[in-house]
Amino acid sequence: MNITQDLSIIELVANASLVVKLVMGLLTFVSVMSWYWIFRKWFAIRDARNKTEKFERDFWSGGDLGTLYQSAVTERHQTGALERVFEAGFREFTKLRGQKSLDPATVINGVRRAMRATFQREIDDLESHLAFLASVGSVSPYVGLFGTVWGIMHAFRGLANVSSATLAAVAPGIAEALVATAIGLFAAIPAVVAYNRYAHDVDRLAVRFESFIEEFSNILQRQIK
Asked: The whole model's pTM is what?
């Protein structure tokens, strides 16, 4: 018997039991989906960060707020998350300022609520599918371990029909079982790393958005006094 051939990855997967094959297939599918969302979120968060930096430069350059608002409205498909927060706040400010019966505090509170609502939607959008990466990172090793345990049990049950238990007899079965754990780790490690990184990036963006909301509210409050 050619043990080297029997222990090749392709042979191990091909000769694995049905349950182990199902586990490997599930983990492979989850890994592919995980990598898909890793790249999608990388592009989305990078785009949000770049647009946030651009809008902050435009906003703090001292330009007219009305001009910035019109630009945000006319180029909505190109605006970033922070620009949409600004748009929601300025639109609410323009609407409420025209109501003479409202005092300045009520106007600012309404503006702040409008920006907060948009802020929450934008953060929810940036955080979408991060929970999937977290689940993959936490569950995949256990799914792989289940496949390994099942494969080892299957290998040892096969020894009942063998007159002499040798390493050559049990090694292929144990090796094919361990492949499930390897695939589980391959799926989990990138997902955990990506989740931690993206969660940190989203938190940093959220802090920048919240700071902008407070600073912009103060600017609008000075305008209506």
From this structure: 0.82
- CA 36/CA 30 separation, integer angstroms: 10
Q: How far is CA 30 from CA 64, 141, 184, 191, in A?
A: 49, 12, 9, 10
Distances (CA, A) of 3 to 158, 163, 172, 175: 17, 19, 8, 11
Is there a contact between 130 and 45 (Cβ–Cβ < 8 Å)?
Answer: no
More confident residue, 68 or 162: 68
Domain residue extents for the chain? 3-223
Is the pLDDT assigned to residue 10 strictly greater than 90? no
